[in-house]
Amino acid sequence: MAKSGTVSKIRHQGVVGPSDTRRALIDAATETLKAEGFAGASARAIAGRAGCNQGLVFYHFGSVVNLLLAALDAVSADRLEHYGTAVSGVDSPSELVEVAAAIFQEDLDAGYVSVLVAMIAGASSTPGLGPEVADRIAPWIQFAQQAVEVSLVDSWLSSAIPSQDVAVAVVALYLGLEMLTHLDGDRAPALALFEHANRFAALFASMTGPTTKDGSGETGPEEAR
Amino acid sequence: MAKSGTVSKIRHQGVVGPSDTRRALIDAATETLKAEGFAGASARAIAGRAGCNQGLVFYHFGSVVNLLLAALDAVSADRLEHYGTAVSGVDSPSELVEVAAAIFQEDLDAGYVSVLVAMIAGASSTPGLGPEVADRIAPWIQFAQQAVEVSLVDSWLSSAIPSQDVAVAVVALYLGLEMLTHLDGDRAPALALFEHANRFAALFASMTGPTTKDGSGETGPEEAR
DNA sequence: GTCTATACTTGGATAGAC
DNA sequence: GTCTATCCAAGTATAGAC
Lengths: 225, 225
Fold this sequence. Notes:
CATH architecture of the domain at 69-207 in chain A: Orthogonal Bundle
Number of helices of chain A: 12
Order of helices and strands of chain A: HHHHHHHHHHHH
Distance between the termini of chain A: 72 Å
Largest interface: A-B, 55 and 56 residues
Radius of gyration of chain A: 22 Å
Largest sheet of chain A: none
Mean pLDDT of chain A: 86
Strand content of chain A: under 5%
CATH topology of the domain at 69-207 in chain A: Tetracycline Repressor, domain 2
Helix content of chain A: over 70%
Shape of chain A: elongated
Low-confidence stretches of chain A: 1-14, 211-220
Oligomer: homodimer
Number of strands of chain A: 0
Structural class of chain A: mainly alpha
């Protein structure tokens, strides 16, 4: 077999890659957060899902909370990279809304956002967890802001709306819709919302025409102030 | 003193009113949910805050979860009644946004919405809790829907936007903003959002003029479809 | 690196005295 | 109704064998 003595000796964390168990624990922690929430994400529950011993949680991560943060890191990195490729071709608000709707459905199915919700809620229960979670949520807001700015390039809306505030609203809506949808299992209202958002994006775009193509619409209606 | 023998005999739960301890436990449960989240809301923590024995939680409510649901009921009834009086004079979207901004600041200061967030998040951890919480969140959505409908009476927007979807969005935004604000303690972005919402409400109102006064604006722009 | 075993703590819940 | 005392289950974390 290819697994000679020297090869197996190199295979420790940090050189070739993380150990299988470490990875399994992170995945199991993610799944446990999705299914059982923060209060249900104990070392025993996670290790049981990972098919290994409970003590390994502390060997690999030092504490349960550290493992949960590692899981949050993994989900964050995974999704943000995915979002980045998804919005790479977007250059209008209505396109952005369409992409966001598709991504939101993905996240809802896979339960990625419920990991964020669980960790944010859990931050209230565990001393010192708040700032750690906040640091890991910030990139989501930053990404949303960037996406909004890119989609609004050359639009009169870009001067009317501070992109940072819109980004906060988008992430807040994302988290809130996840909570409500998760609560009663009915995703219809959430999906309907994206439909309306799409119509509104088209409406706003029509108020000055396709500015990116004819280049005539520089200013919006005065009422927008 | 007015507290004669017969009067004190009537003073048991359900006739004159709930016992002091019962009320104290509900209040303490609310405070504990705000401060420690769902995972930190144990019988001991709550009883400690209420200044009574831990066993009384089970005597009065049967289980910790039942007490938490009673606390959610109390917060819900309290706030929804308050909201009702706050929006009683509203008859335009921009007025509604103004009232909502004021209410949101109140809720943020008092931490009422964090009780909802904690219970929704906790519903993932406790079997059977989900539907109970969902039943208690539904009135919030229903109230929001009603408020939106009232504010849009005679506006062309009322036919363009299904009020139920807007209500879900408003509640989701409410929950999400609470989470994000609670996380890093900075309420500035949330408050800025209400400012922008106000401008947009005014913008939409201006698109057909004050329809409730001249009665001419029945239809909106075709782009609204 | 992984397992077993164990110490320690906290939490839900009940029994019984007052 | 309230308290003390207690049982039992579950959780975190560590020690030590393999």
